[in-house]
Amino acid sequence: MKRFTCGELVESITAYLDDALDPPVRAGFEAHAACCDDCRRHVHQFRVTIRAVGDQPPEKLPDRTRERLMSAFRQRRRT
């Protein structure tokens, strides 16, 4: 089983949610999320965002929603 850092989990989250990780890698992702409150919260927030936005292309989102999402992504990149 692969051991994940928080940064690796963040980089792998879309593959995880798309069920595109190999079983041992997926197990490592889940093991890390199970013991890391910040990563577990991040996965939850990502799921909530996906449900809220759905399959809408960015240009179809309301300006305020698009700007809030982009601001959150920019802030995450800085940390």
How many domains?
1
Mean pLDDT: 86
- Sheet with the most strands? none
Strand content: under 5%
Instruction: Find the structural class using helix and strand composition.
Output: mainly alpha
- The end-to-end span amounts to 27 Å
Q: Classify the helix fraction into a percent range.
A: over 70%
General form: elongated
Unreliable runs: none
Count of helical regions: 4
Keywords:
mainly alpha; elongated; Anti_sigma_zinc_sf; transcription; Znf_put
Structural notes for this entry:
With 79 residues, this protein is an all-alpha fold. It has one domain. The chain is built from four helices and no strands. α1 crosses α2, α1 packs parallel to α3 and α2 packs across α3. The longest helix is centred in the middle third of the chain and has 17 residues. The mean pLDDT is 86.
Structure in a nutshell:
This protein is mostly helical and 79 residues long.
Layout of secondary structure:
Blueprint: H1 6-17, H2 23-35, H3 37-53, H4 63-78
Helix pairs in contact: 1-2, 1-3, 2-3
Domain Putative zinc-finger: 6-40
Keywords: Transcription, Transcription regulation
Protein name: Anti-sigma factor
